[in-house]
Amino acid sequence: MNISTTIMPENRCSSINELFDDHIQMLSRWHRAKYYHILCQKHSNLACFYDNDYFMCLCDIDRHANCFKFDYRPVDNSFGYNYCENDAQCYLDNITCPTSFSCACKECYFGTRCQFTTIGFGLSLDDILGYSIWSNVPFSKQSNAVKISTLLTTLIFIIAVLDFALSVITFQTKRSLEVGVGIYLLAASITSFIIIIIFGLKYLFLLLSQMAIITNNSFLLGNCICTDFFLKAFSSIGDWLTACVNFERVITILLGVKFNKARSKKIAKRLILGINLFTLTSFIHDPFHRHLLEDTEEQRTWCVIRYSSSVRIYASFVNIFHFILPFCLNFIATLAIIVLIAREKSKTRQEQTYRELLCNQFHQHKHRLLSSLVLVIVAILRLIISFASTCMKSVRNPWLFIGGYFISFIPPLLIFAIFVLLSEFYRKEFKDATVRIRKTIQNRFHLQ
Is this prediction's pTM over 0.85? Predict the structure, then answer.
């Protein structure tokens, strides 16, 4: 007997708990069975139903109930060896000599072996986009998600090159490097460019590996271990460096004429080294828990991460710590700058009220406030997408998570825009530097 049907919500087999009154549900199994035919006759669209205790019933064309024994409760028959990831239930086709298996994933996990998840903060591109890349299919025939992601990645890289070049031209000048702020900004510019380079390589290698163009396991393992580790670490380093910029400005206001530029430069160099060592060390657990997973069913090789429960808690804490704290410090420092300057000027300008002075300082230092506000707004968007959205249970609708992932690379692209274009001092430094570069080129190539 061959039975075929279409998987549709209205064809779902309902439980008798949804169909019978309470007094019928309380009857014994065989007494309940007497009423099964009534359900088929009463509900004309009912195709099937099941009794939690024993039976599965099909309503035939004459609206009679044909029932058979059916154990609806899934039983893990893997007997100790689980082919599935993340504590998913494993079902073998044959207990004695299995030739295939299937996995029942927990909530928010997906993949043929439940190897991916969208729970928590700090998602990987493999989790979000991996299944959208079709193996052994040319790029021209790939999904829209892949084509749009490739376009965005290319656009991000072009902007990053321009931002890096313009930022280095500005922050390498002698006046910019007189204090720690300039050193932090130069380091942030270099770090941001490194982030985008690693991201570009990450995307390229993921695309080529899932299209089955790169198949060397040693290369894939090295890429799996290193790329996400350095991407997370340098992204956090960039966040800390932008926070250091505003705290240096707060210290400058607090110390006033006592501010020591030489000492500021020395502290900045040491602090940059310390931030790099601290951040890299805090993420050092990541490479040791990354492995390659062979998906024999789809002929793919995946980069997966396997954490114990304690390491998972630590990893989540580290991701959130390196994200939230720098942005909070950055915003608080910006407000402190404005308030401190207003207080200082209120002592000398008695004719103006403190509120008027505060408003004046907001207007005068709006470039500093705007730079922090832009970063904080982007951070809030990432938080909302990461924690407020429902988890991705399949690969059919990855757009929200793709958007959240690409939004995380906006801050590294804004160094020149928010720290140079919004600042009168650095705009002047940029103009002077470009004039010097233009004169140098003209003299070297004898151009008029």
Answer: no
Q: Are strands 48-50 and 55-59 parallel, antiparallel or unpaired?
A: antiparallel
Amino acid identity for residue 125 in this structure: L
User: What ranges do the domains of the chain cover?
Assistant: 9-69, 120-444
CB 418 within 8 A of CB 370: yes
**Positive/negative CA dihedral, 205, 206, 211, 217:** positive
Q: Report in angstroms the alpha-carbon separations of 140 from 204, 206, 270, 274.
A: 15, 17, 49, 46
Work out the burial of residue 25: count CB atoms within 10 Å of its CB; fewer than 13 is exposed, 13-18 middle, 19 or more buried. Answer: middle
Average pLDDT, 10 consecutive residues per value, the chain (448 residues): 61 82 82 86 85 82 84 56 76 72 78 74 75 87 91 95 94 89 93 95 93 90 92 92 86 79 90 95 93 81 85 87 84 75 59 60 61 67 57 64 83 88 87 89 74
Name the packing angle between helices 180-210 and 144-171 (round to 10°).
160
Query: What are the structure tokens assigned to 268, written together?
Result: 């900045």
The answer to whether 276 and 239 have CB atoms below 8 angstroms apart is no
Per-residue DSSP letter, 365:
T
120-444 maps to which CATH number?
1.20.1070.10
Using alpha carbons, select from 229, 221, 203 the residue that is nearest to residue 292.
221
